[in-house]
Amino acid sequence: MTELRSGEIGDWGLEILIADDEPIIRMGLKAMLQEMGHRVTAASNGREALRLARRQQFDLAILDIKMPYTDGLQTARTLALTSPLPVLLLTAFSERDLVEEASDLPIQGYLVKPVQPGQLLASIAVAHKRFVEAQARAAQTQQLAQQAERQQVIDRAKGKLMAGGLSEDAAHRVLQRQARNGRRPMHEVAQEILDAS
To answer: Which residues contact 182 (CB under 8 A, 6 or more apart)?
Structure first.
C-alpha cells in the first residue's frame, strides 16, 4: 500500500480495486478513475474482488452493494479482517435499507449511481483521510495499551521486591540498574523477576 502523508492523495494516484457486476458501470468507473491518474483493477463480483485483494495490495476499494456470489457488504466485512483499506460502497438510490445495514461496517462512505466525477474525487479524498486517521487512532490506542501493560508488569515486580524488604524507590532502582546493565527494557527485567520462583 502506498504511504500517504496526513491522509493526502498525491499526484501519482492510488491502486484502486473496483467491483460491480454491471459492465457499463464498471467500465465507466474505471475510465473516470484512470482519467484522475489512478491505477484500477476491476472485478465483476465480490468473490473475484476478494481473490484479487489476496494477490495484490490496494489503497482503496469501491464496491457495489448488490453483486452475485459475494455482495459488497460481505466483501467489505472480509476486507476489513484480511486486508484493511478504505472502502466506498456503490449504491442505487432505492437501496436505502442496504445503506442502513452498511452503517455498521468499517466503510468510509457511499457513492450513489450514477457516479459523477466531482463526487468520486471528493469521496476518495475523504475516504482516504478518514481511513488514515482511524488507523492512526487504532495504533495509538494499541501503543497506550502496551505501555499500560508494561507498567503493570513493572509495578508488580516492584511489589515483589518490596515484599522482600526494599522500599519502593529502592525496588525501582534495582529494576533500573538491571535493565541498564543488561541493556534491556525495564519491563523485560520486571517480567523475569515475576517469573522467578
So the answer is: 189
